[in-house]
Design the sequence.
């Protein structure tokens, strides 16, 4: 093997190893940050909290879940005598393609097209989610706060909500100018119903004693809304927002497969149509990672806005995540 081949092999190995090193470093940093926060609430040192986590059954069950999933994937593709599984790419093939500077199927972390698809999907999902939050939360609050509005609107919501998002695609394309608004509209619908109904549930879950106490103290309707209804329903609202974010990604991919030219849903469908099967898995894993990050971001904002709740839960020996 001459020096040119050795140099080429070295560059290829570094292109493969460096992303793994960066991802591992980020994961370790996130783990340390999480353990530091848990140590603060538990009243122990960070090192002791890390040792406690690494020796806990929950941590190793988490690791075992990932290992078993990847192991079954590998065994199903290469060892099991089922032809249907043999059509799928193995985990080694997907990872090699994903981290390759010169991907065989044209999509990896080094290609511009990969990030273009991510940006399009993120823009659509974020826009739909923001619209669903701005409209769904007030709508749910009004439904829970005003009995007459609830009786008028809830049956209509329950009739429209079960309609699958894909059934709205043709109407959305006919009604809205261009493909982009149609995909966002379909994504928005699913997130809107989840947000509105969870907000409604949050209002309905507030103990009637809080309303009576507020009235006894002379609070008017506006003060009850801002001091009782909204704070009391916040836990349900943020739970609904996390579910709505996941639902937005779910419906977005379906819309992109039918009516878009860019996006992760389009990338997955294109991978199937052009027999680029590793690209399908890359798109799916990317969706999972981005969806997880978006849920973590919503949960983080929820904790900041509900610090009073976390203090109550930590005082009783629980945590907000529980």
Sequence:
């Amino acid at each position: 093997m001459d020096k040119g081949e050795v140099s080429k092999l070295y560059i290829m190995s570094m292109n493969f190893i460096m992303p793994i090193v960066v991802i591992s470093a980020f994961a370790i940093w996130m783990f340390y940050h999480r353990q530091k926060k848990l140590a603060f609430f538990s009243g122990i040192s960070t090192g002791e909290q890390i040792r406690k986590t690494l020796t806990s059954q929950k941590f190793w069950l988490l690791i075992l879940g990932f290992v078993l999933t990847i192991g079954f994937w590998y065994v199903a593709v290469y060892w099991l005598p089922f032809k249907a599984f043999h059509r799928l790419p193995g985990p080694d093939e997907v990872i090699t393609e994903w981290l390759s500077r010169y991907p065989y199927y044209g999509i990896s972390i080094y290609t511009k097209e990969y990030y273009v698809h991510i940006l399009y999907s993120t823009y659509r999902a974020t826009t739909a989610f923001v619209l669903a939050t701005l409209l769904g939360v007030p709508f749910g609050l009004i439904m829970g706060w005003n009995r007459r509005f609830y009786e008028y609107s809830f049956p209509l919501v329950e009739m429209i909500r079960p309609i699958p998002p894909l059934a709205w695609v043709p109407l959305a394309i006919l009604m809205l100018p261009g493909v982009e608004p149609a995909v966002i509209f379909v994504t928005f619908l699913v997130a809107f119903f989840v947000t509105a109904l969870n907000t409604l549930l949050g209002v309905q879950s507030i103990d009637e004693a809080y309303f009576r106490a507020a009235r006894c103290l002379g609070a008017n309707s506006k003060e009850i809304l801002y001091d009782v209804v909204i704070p009391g329903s916040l836990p349900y609202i943020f739970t609904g927002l996390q579910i709505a974010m996941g639902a937005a990604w779910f419906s977005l991919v379906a819309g992109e497969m039918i009516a878009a030219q860019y996006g992760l849903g389009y990338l997955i469908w294109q991978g199937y149509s052009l027999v680029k099967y590793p690209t399908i898995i890359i798109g799916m894993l990317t969706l999972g990672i981005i969806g997880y990050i978006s849920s973590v971001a919503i949960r983080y904002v929820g904790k900041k806005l509900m610090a009073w709740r976390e203090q109550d839960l930590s005082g009783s020996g629980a945590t907000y995540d529980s």
About this structure: The chain has 14 helices and no strands. The mean pLDDT is 83. The chain has two domains: 3-98, 112-315.
